[in-house]
Amino acid sequence: MEEVQDDSFEALIKEGVTVIDFFAEWCGPCRMLSPVLEEVSEELKGKVKFAKLDIDKNHVTAKAHHVTSVPTLILYKDGEEKNRLVGLRDAAAIKDFALSA
């Protein structure tokens, strides 16, 4: 799963359906969520794009999108936020979330 930065964020979410995982290296639940996201991203390849954004390295984007806790998953469709999940979730919940756009 690719890691997106402040300078590439808008281009990534501009078209199609994208799930961004706002995370931090120090966050235990974020580390637990990572393999689940990898699994779901492989399953939904070609339908939904998945990427990660480190809030400590990319605070401009995290602040602009009102991310106050991690992990936060935000679902975008053609650049617009459609939904968000905060906290650790299982693969089924993430898949349903990703397909809800």
Automatic annotation (TrEMBL):
What SUPFAM superfamilies does its record include?
Answer: Thioredoxin-like (SSF52833)
Q: Which InterPro entries match?
A: Thioredoxin, Thioredoxin-like_sf, Thioredoxin_CS, Thioredoxin_domain
Q: Which UniProt keywords apply?
A: Disulfide bond, Electron transport, Redox-active center, Transport
> Ranges for the Thioredoxin domain?
1-101
- CDD domains recorded: TRX_family
Q: Which residues form a coiled coil?
A: none
What is the recorded name of this protein?
Thioredoxin
> What's the source species for this entry?
Candidatus Neptunichlamydia vexilliferae
